[in-house]
Amino acid sequence: MLEQKLKLCIITPAFNPSKDEIGFYCANIKSIHEAIGGLYDLTFIVVDDGSEEEISLPKSSTAYRSLLRHDVNKGKGAAIKTGVKFIQNTDIVVYTDFDFPYVLNNMYDMIDLMVSQDADIMVAKRSQAYFSKLPLQRKVISKLLLFVNKYVMGLDHYDTQGGLKVLNAKNSDLLLSTRSNGFLFEIEFIYAAQSVGLKILDYVVQLRADVLIPPISWQSIVKNIRALFVILVKRKY
Questions:
Q1: What does the buried/exposed string (b/e) look like for 143-165 if buried means 16 or more CB atoms within 10 Å of the residue's CB?
Q2: What CATH number does residue 83 fall under?
Q3: Res 224: pLDDT
């Protein structure tokens, strides 16, 4: 009797992607299917987070993916949580950015490590090479968040903003319990996971050579400063 494959769902939020980015996404899910489709029962979920023009994926990519949509932009955290709520039955949840910013082998390794090490969550840890490519504004914000996560939140795995996570699906409710809908929801999630004693492992990831990281809008910065304040005030000791 053949061993049943683990079910693996990959969620990617998207906001105003270009046609080239959509094409790159489709090429990536094809590569992923070819690389690990024999090991896992794969599904892909794209959450269109209120793009000005509704995202349309080529029909050739519809065999193993779903496209969800927010009528308005709600934030990265809200988009990922929408994807998680949509999943009916899966064993492993992966979420990452629509452009798959890290080399795909990093994701495969993280999935394998989570299964082999019986971990609850795998966290992408950004390398110094990653930080060297950041615009000054984002570099300062990232370093401040690392400081807050390590010394204020007391996180052992304090690089929460790597944008790639692999988790055992049984921990999905913990992710859904986060209050923040922006990108800082990951601080809440890792804090909650550490608080209940989940097994968390990190993995140093490699940014693709062609990835360009744009500055963050000041509107987004102000919004997320407020969100961080709420996280700090409402965290449980």
A1: eebbebbeeebebebbbbbbbbb
A2: 3.90.550.10
A3: 73
With both helix axes pointing from N to C terminus, report the angle between 185-195 and 76-86 in degrees, rounded to the nearest 10.
60
Number of domains in the chain: 1
Q: Nearest to residue 187, comparing CAs of 220, 131, 141, 235? A: 235
Give Cα separations from 228 to 59, 76, 188 (angstroms): 40, 15, 9
Per-residue pLDDT at 134 exceeds 60: yes
Q: Domain of residue 84: give its range.
A: 6-234
Instruction: Provide the token pair at 88.
Output: 């009916």
Q: Does the pLDDT value for residue 153 go beyond 70? A: yes
CA-closest candidate to residue 160, choices 76, 51, 91, 88: 76
For residue 10, count other CB atoms closer than 10 A to its CB.
25
| 3-class DSSP state of 11 | strand
Does any domain span residue 41? yes
Q: Is residue 127 part of a domain?
A: yes
pTM: 0.91
220 within some domain:
yes
pLDDT of res. 237: 44
Instruction: State pLDDT tens for residues 202-213.
Output: 999 999 988 888
Q: Residues with Cβ < 8 Å from 196, sequence gap 6 or more?
A: 174
